[in-house]
Amino acid sequence: MTRYADIPKPIRSGIVVVDPDRGTPQRIIVLQFNPDTLERSLSPQSAGGSGDSGGGGSGSGDRNEALRLKGPAQETWKFTAEIDATDQFEVAAPDGIHPQLATLEMLVQPTTQQIRDASRLSQKGAIEISPIEMPLTLFTWGSKRVMPVRLTELSINESAFDVNLNPIRASLSIGLKVLTVSDLPAGHRGADLYLAHLAQKERLAAAARGGSLGGLGLTAAGAGTGTVGTLNGRG
Asked: Where is the composition biased (Gly residues) (predicted)?
């Protein structure tokens, strides 16, 4: 049998639930299959007001703020994950893929203990009850993309079941919002992790090869013209 010892084992993407105080992983969720595609969206947090909304704009934004940013861009991720136990029947799975699904669902659910604690405070006449805080969640896509996130969408399509109606195959549409220093309090571990994620982007951007004006059909501006360049061949 031919063996390919030099072929590296593929790295899986996944989610890590972290204790925000101690920084220790509480749970690691490894996606069974890496998604085939990723949809990423970045929205800059401009300081220019309504004039930079892109809708044909009233021009009411402060022109002195046109190139200023209020903070990091708001970034969202969307992808489809697959869970399939149909080829793993040699492993005892009396609950099908219920455990894997429940693990993901609990990322957007408070625990029964948290609900009971909040109810107990309410019955004692607490004037203000703080919303239940969830653990810090990280999404990992290789070593160069490790970022704090909040799960914003979880849509589950179960497509196969065993004889006890336990799901054994499912497709999950997952949406994530990257949490930035604008979303987290100062000193929060998640804010530090976001800064590390942003620093990684800066290092990758610095490694990119720069272009040239000639490649854009431009030439260097003449002295005193106040322009970056002029189109070649312009009459």
From this structure: 48-60
Distance CA 52, CA 115 (A): 43
DSSP string across 82-104: EEE-TT-TTS--TTTTHHHHHHH
Ranked by mean pLDDT, which of 108-112, 157-161, 214-218 comes out on top? 157-161
The residue written with tokens 């930035």 in the block is: 180
Tokens of 110: 């408070």
Report how far apart the first and last C-alpha atoms of the chain are (Å, whole number): 69
Which residues, listed in sequence order, are joined to residue 78 by a DSSP beta bridge?
A: 39, 175
Please say if the pLDDT value at position 57 is more than 80: no
**The pairing of beta strand 167-178 with beta strand 39-46:** unpaired
Of 107, 83, 85, the closest CA to residue 96 belongs to 85
| Longest Cα separation, the chain | 82
> What global pTM score does this model have?
0.80
Domains of the chain, residue spans: 14-46+66-204
Which of 3-17, 129-143, 173-187 is the least confident region? Answer: 3-17
Q: Which residue did the predictor score with more confidence, 167 or 10?
A: 167
